[in-house]
Each structure stands twice: as structure tokens, then as C-alpha cells.
Amino acid sequence: MFDNTEMLDLVERALDDDRVCPVCSAPTTIEEEHGRLWLVCSATPAPAGILARMTHAILPHERRLVADLADHRAA
User: Fold this and answer.
1) Relative to the CA of 50, which of 10, 32, 61, 73 has its CA 20 to 30 Å away?
2) What is the rounded CA–CA span in Å between residue 24 and residue 6?
3) What pTM was estimated for this model as a whole?
4) Residue 13 and residue 15: Cα distance in Å, rounded?
5) Beta bridge mates, 20
6) pLDDT tens for residues 17-65?
């Protein structure tokens, strides 16, 4: 299980390593999705429409797993 200090260190290190999206230069943020923390591009909503999905597949914006909290939850 992650403690607060370790979790904060993971988040800070991820934001320090990748401050901006390499595709569009927008700042990156941390988002939680289904018990996982992701480093994501702040300017990229989920692609809607065929052209947006094709562009996203060819030039994906930043999205990297920082921590999986689901593995560390008590039963």
C-alpha cells in the first residue's frame, strides 16, 4: 500500500519528468480513472468522431500510468 509521502513523490516525479505534452505542448495533469492515476495532456478530451480517433491513434497525446491504486486496496 502506498503511503501519502510515496504517492506524492510519484505524482511530483511524473509531473517534473513530463511537464508538457510532446504533441501539443499543453501542460500535463494527473487524473484518476478506476483506481489508477494517469499523467495526461490537459488539452485533450476523449476523441469523438472518426477523424479525431484516427488522429489520436497516429499522434497520441501524453497518457502514462503513474500509480495503480486498485492493486493496493484492502480486501
Assistant:
1) 32
2) 30
3) 0.70
4) 5
5) 27
6) 989 988 888 899 999 988 899 999 888 766 567 776 676 677 777 888 9
